[in-house]
Structure formats: structure tokens, C-alpha cells
Amino acid sequence: RKPTSKGSITDRPWAHTAHTYSNNPMFSLSNQVTKYLFLLTLAMALLLLCSATTKRFRTVNITPAFTVFHYPLRQRQVAFTTGWASSQHAVLISRPHLNSVGMRKPLIHHFVTLQNAIVSVDDAQSSDEKPKTRKKSRKQRRRKAKKVNLQRIDKVLAHRGVGTRSQTSELAKAKRITVASRPDAPHEERTRLRGPKEKVPYGAALFLDGNLLPGPAPLLLAYHKPKYVLSVMEDDEKYQDQNRKHLGQVLEPRYIKAGMHPVGRLDYDTTGLILFSLDGKLTQRLLHPRRGVEKEYVATVQGIADEMKLAKRLSDGVETSVGVHKAKLIAVTPSDGPTPMDDGDIKEIIGLEEDDDDERLADFSGPYSDVRLVVKEGKYRMVRRILANSGHPVAELRRLRHGKIKLGDLKVGEFREPTEEELEWAENLIHNN
Fold first, then answer.
1. Whether this model's pTM surpasses 0.70
2. Which of 46, 241, 256, 426 is most buried when burial is the number of CB atoms within 10 A of its CB?
3. Is the dihedral of CA 323, 324, 330, 332 positive or negative?
4. Which of 219-233, 356-370, 410-424 shows the lowest per-residue confidence on average (mean pLDDT)?
5. b/e map of 289-311 (b: 16 or more CB within 10 Å)?
6. Helix (H) or strand (E) holding 54
7. What pLDDT shows up at residue 98?
8. How many CA atoms does the CB half-sphere of 214 hold within 13 Å?
9. Closest by alpha carbon to 407, among 301, 262, 275, 250?
10. What are the C-alpha distances in Å from 249 to residues 61, 163, 216, 268, 413?
11. What single-letter DSSP state applies at residue 278?
12. Can you tell me the distance from the alpha carbon of 258 to that of 156, in angstroms, rounded to the nearest whole number?
């Protein structure tokens, strides 16, 4: 055919229609290759997305009129059972495409209307495909090792105060450490350890050159702190000439080497229960306000306290110079007053730091009241501040309880290990998120 005008498409017979254009063999081949490459890339991306989603999903409520339909791909299936069109319909969704807050876009979808759908996990027992066992992560392996309570021998020795990690590692390398199931085990029942990487039960009986080593340090220790003792392991250098007492002088050296430390602080002139911990995570959870671990105190205060008015004042919150703090009042009882002070105590009081809320009780002769209250924070001199600002300055303060661990009849200046119930509570505090 002759062209009718210059540049007209009638000059190109193969370009009249899309059908005619697609008959070009070269174009058809390149189009097919491009299409297959695109589909292959899309399939690989979707496979990666599926394999990356490994969460197990709980029961989730789906909003009405949600639209989804999908064929099961692998492992578990999620079944939507809903009354739609006055009949029961089961819609199967593959696990990789469901998360805890909603749905991701499915591979193959068909729009249906779901009324009040409830998501439930089904084991898909009818499916022929068996679920693949997932490899445990390092964190899960560590948790399992903790359950069994096996630890490296150099770490166990360091916790028992034998020496530093490097020193205990050298002892293990020299094969001088033997282990047994009980302290009185004969030589034939003991096993010699080959090196510092060997793992043993935390409470195992250990021997150095045949001599029994001290047992493991406890997770917690309860101590009845006397008055005028600093709640630190070492006093500041600029005050060392005053020879002030501190907790580092009362705790056994082997416990200090093991890493035991005080859980929070008590004021210099406050007595009562203070805990020592071997685990930093436990310490953080005992102290953080978000955990809500209760601390119970009894305060000898000036004047006769009105229980009803004081309870309301404390529950509403008392404003101090460092913020508003709340407390829960337990009881108010009459008191004989604070413990009489000797000359040494008066000298110590002179060195105490003053603050805006705390009032000294120099010439007050009574009457006094004992106020028992519970707080969930541990701010500096907080209990003294809120009671002083409520009209009852504190003459004496003692802590009776920290969480579930009670002071009880523990004598001043003495230690005790926690009971089984207290220890179980502390361990649950560590492992519960």
C-alpha cells in the first residue's frame, strides 16, 4: 500500500492494532521474558515476606465488614467462622499473613463480608503438610540453660568469692577444681573439670585442691540496718576522715566479691529492712516505680494524727519541694515517742543534711503517734517529707517490709536469707515481664 500522508500509521501495517503489533515475534519474546521475570521476582519477594513472619498469633477481634479470603500456605491455619448470608462459612488464612493487630495483604484474595468475625488458631490437623520445627534462638537457648541452672565454672567460682573471673579461669585451666553433688562426697565421686568453659550446677559442691569451697551466695539477703549507717558500700573520700559507718563494713567480703549490692537506700537516720541483691535485673525491678513493689514503713510522728483525714490527704497526694507523692495509710496508733538518744547519736544528728520539708524535733515533749503507711516509690526522704507537710513531722522512721520480704523479728545489725516463699516471689519478679 502507498502511504496516504507522511508519518501516518498506515505506513506501518504491523501497528494497526494491538493484536497486529503483538504478532511481532521479537516483541512477543521480550514481553514473555519480562513478564516471567516480573512474576519470578514477585514470587521471591512474597516467599521472603512469608518466611520473615514467624510470630504466633493470639485471638484477635476483626472489625465487621472486613474483606479477606486466602488459601492456606504452610504450617498453621487461622479459621474465621462467621455467620454470613445466614449460613456458616469458614475462611482460611495462612499464618504468615496475620499479625496480632490485623491483616496483611494476602497473595490471593476474594472479597467477602464477615460479620463479627473471631480469629482462632487451628492446629490444622487435617492438613497433610507437617509444620517445620523452628531453630531455637540464642535467647531461648540461654533461657533453657538458666532453667537447668548450669553456669560456667569460672563465673560460679567468682560468685563464691574465690577470686576474679581471670583468677578463677586460671584455676580451672590448671585443673585444680573438682565438682561433686554433695559436700561430703568421697574423692572417688568427684569429677575434675578440664577448663573454664565447663558448666556446673550453680549450687554444686566445689573443691579446690581437695578442699571444700564456700557455697554459693544467695540471691537476696535481708539486713536490719541500725541508725546512723550509710546505705553505701564505701563512703565518699571527702568524708572518710569522719569514720562514718557504711554497709561495706557489715557485709561479708565473699559476698562483696560475688557482687552483692544494696537494693536502694535508707536514710542515714532511718532503721529497718534493707535488701542485698546478687542480680542486677532483680534490683531494677524491686526499685522501679512501674513495677509497683510496695515498701511499708512505721513512722513515729509528732502530735495525735487523725486517721481519716491523714488517709485522705496521703491518698490524694502531698505536695513537697520535689513533687507530689502519694501513700496508702495502714493504721495510726498512740506512741511512747522515739527511742532515747545518747550523746553519740546527738553528734551524728548535727551532721545531718537539712531540707525544706523536714523539721527537727528539738523541744517537743509529746504526744506522739505511730503511723504505718505504704509507698511505691523510693525518693530521697520522701516519707519524712509527706508526713511533715501533712502536719506531723517524723521523729523516727523504720522500714518493715519490701515487697513480700518482711523485717519480722530480725535483730538490729543481723542478716538472714529469704524463705522459700520469698525466694520464689523474687524469682518470679525476675522472669515475669
1. no
2. 426
3. positive
4. 356-370
5. eeeebebbbbbbbbeebeeeebb
6. none
7. 42
8. 16
9. 275
10. 59, 19, 21, 15, 11
11. S
12. 9
